[in-house]
Amino acid sequence: MRYQISGKQIDVGEALQTHVKSELGNVMEKYSQRPTDANIVFSRDAHAYVCESTVHLSTGLTAQAKGQANDIYAAFDACCERMDKQLRRYKRRLKDHHRDRPAPVEFGGASAYILASDDGSEGDEPDTLAPMIIAEMETRIPSISAGEAVMQMELSHTPVLVFRNERHGGLNVVYRREDGNIGWIDPQ
User: Fold this and answer.
1) Residue 19: pLDDT over 70
2) What Gene3D superfamilies would the database entry show (predicted)?
3) pLDDT digits over 76-107, tens only?
4) Measured between alpha carbons, how far is 114 from 124 in angstroms, rounded to an integer?
5) Nearest-5° angle of CA 43, CA 48, CA 51?
6) Which of 17, 76, 114, 161 could form a disulfide bond with 135, CB atoms 3.0-4.6 angstroms apart?
């Protein structure tokens, strides 16, 4: 597994990096057999340290956790504990409902855009109907099942996930509805 351990205006020493690799490695070994990479970022929030971790698994899932404490090691331990809890819950779901995947998930490329919102009055007609794009970035679209897409959406704490359905190869969308349930769009 590849580790990227960094700090935002914090020097991350060798002892902390070794601690992160060993502890996170133990959690990954316990719950996921094939993690691909982990990104751990330490930062300060007033008097407290914050640790944010993102782990990409070969199953296509991305697990994210965040911990905060007055000590940098305690912040990482809180983050690692949350990651452990998340992976334990999702491993149970995978074990009960999904088959073992023989090969890593395939990803397709796509462009993602963030459009600027217009906070003007509703009665005014804009000069052009094309919205202003304020950010453009590349994103990956996984080829997974609908159940795995729901788990991925919950793990990454996002309201919407676009994925390629591995059953028929078409693009699908899962999203969190206002009533708290999950919606699934599967166009024919």
Assistant:
1) yes
2) Ribosome hibernation promotion factor-like, Sigma 54 modulation/S30EA ribosomal protein, C-terminal domain
3) 999 999 988 888 887 776 654 445 556 666 67
4) 23
5) 40
6) 114
> What counts of helices (H) and strands (E) characterise the chain?
3, 9
Opening angle at CA 92, ends 86 and 96, nearest 5: 150
Which token pair is 4?
Answer: 């990227």
Higher-pLDDT residue of 150, 90:
150
Domain 107-185 has CATH 3.30.70.660: no
C-alpha span between 53 and 40 (Å, rounded)? 4
- Integer Cα distance of 33 and 6 in angstroms: 24
Q: Which two tokens stand for residue 22?
A: 């060993």
- CB-neighbour burial class of residue 87 (10 A; exposed 0-12, middle 13-18, buried 19+): buried
Average pLDDT, the chain: 80
H helices within 98-176, ranges in order? Answer: 146-155
**Domain boundaries defined on the chain:** 2-97, 107-185
Question: Which CATH fold topology does 2-97 show?
Answer: Double Stranded RNA Binding Domain (3.30.160)
